[in-house]
Amino acid sequence: MESQTYIKNIRISAKKLRFMTGDIKKRNPVDALHHLNYMPKRGARLIYKAIKSAISNAKVKLKVGDDLLRFKLLTIEQGRKLKRYRAGGRGTAKPFQRQSAHIKIILVADNPAKKVEGAAPEKEEQKVLAKQVKAKKI
After folding, report:
1. Quick check: 102 and 5 in contact, CB under 8 A?
2. Most-buried pick from 54, 61, 62, 75 (CB within 10 A)?
3. What angle do CA 11, 39, 55 make, to 5 degrees?
4. 79-101: buried (b, 16+ CB within 10 Å) or exposed (e) per residue?
5. Could you give the domains of the chain?
6. How crowded is residue 11: how many other Cβ atoms within 10 Å of its Cβ?
7. pLDDT digits (tens, 9 = 90+) for 91-119
8. For the whole model, what pTM was predicted?
C-alpha cells in the first residue's frame, strides 16, 4: 500500500528545494522531519510541512504507525513561471521570471510480518508436515 501527497505551486524555485532532497531521501520520514527542523534554509520549512502532511495522510489512509513508513518517491518538479518585467535604462523593459515548484511524495508502509524472523521457517515446516501426512496415507 502507498499514500501519495502532491503539493503544488510553492513560491520558491525547484533548484533551491532539490539541494536538500538528496540527504532526506535516505532517511525515513520521521528522521527527515527531525533533520529538516534544524536546517536554516527557507526551503527546509516548506519541505518539512509537505512531509508532515504526507505522514498524516499515510496514517489515515494506510492505518499504520509512522515508524513503519518509508519514502518510495520524493521529487521536486518545476512549477509554473510568472513572466514579469522591471524597468530598465532608457525606457527599456528587463524581463525576469518568478518560479514555483511542486513537491510529490509517495510513502509506503513496510509490512511488519516481513521483519519477523519466524515467518519464512513456518512455511518450510508446513511443507515438511504435508509430506509426512502424505507418507502416512500411502
Report:
1. no
2. 54
3. 70
4. beeeeeeeeeeeeeeeeeeebbb
5. 2-111 (3.90.470.10)
6. 11
7. 999 999 999 999 999 999 987 655 444 44
8. 0.77
